[in-house]
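Structure ticket #2291
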Amino acid sequence: MPRSDVRLRRSLLFMPGSNLRALEKARTLPADVIVFDLEDSVAPEQKSEARSNALAAVQSGNYGSRELIVRVNHLATHWGAEDLRATAATGVAGIMLPKVETAATLREVREVLTVAGAPVDLPLWIMVETARGVLNLGTIVGGDDALGPIVMGTTDLANELGVSASGERSGLRTALSQCVLTAAAHRLDIIDGVFLDFCDEPGFAAACRQGRELGFTGKSLIHPSQIVEANRCFGISEAAAERARKVLDAWQAARNEGSGVAVLEGQLIESMHVDSARRTLALYKSATNQ
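Resolution: structure written out below.
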């Protein structure tokens, strides 16, 4: 079954809310998603300033078609509740929640947002960064009807598991695949974690390929230099788009002839292939029309 929406999320770039220069630069970058970060990249003494900067950026209207997300601090921290209240009614495309481990966290967040006047369908983006979050992910996503993508926090997860977050990531693969499986079952996009060495271009390209092979729909980024490769790797190639066109043409030709069976180059075409082809073309057109 195809995912529930058609939205380009090849590249998800984290930008510190405390860095005004970075927020300005993000207006011109070809990232699909900009995450204004109030959490890990912001020092405690800069939290309030970062919040004000991020919300001003969201409401500025200067970011074109980019999807704008705010990553708030965890509700259990000193800043979490105020982050939610301040962000609730800004028109942000979604709120990213760090280190989600239980469905109860989502219920508590929704309560704060509702009181603050947030839309009932404001998407919550879930970060999976702990072993408990991985194990509980099915219950977590099954308890909220207005979720955005799942985002992997591979650095924290690897640290907790005592394995490497770089290279082949063999120690993370079981957890990553389990999360991809859960995302697919709930028709949600799922974004791979960051690659920390932004000077290692070959390493980053290999990480993108591995992420796509595992089933991720995009890549989290820490530096603008990573955007182009992420967009290329997680995008739709002309060859893939052409194949999708042929699938739809074959399907339509079979229908015109009154046949319930379509065949393309010796392969049986079923309705699931048609749905996938339509999504592929929609994503391709979205990318080429940006």
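Closing remark: The chain has two domains: 11-234, 238-288.
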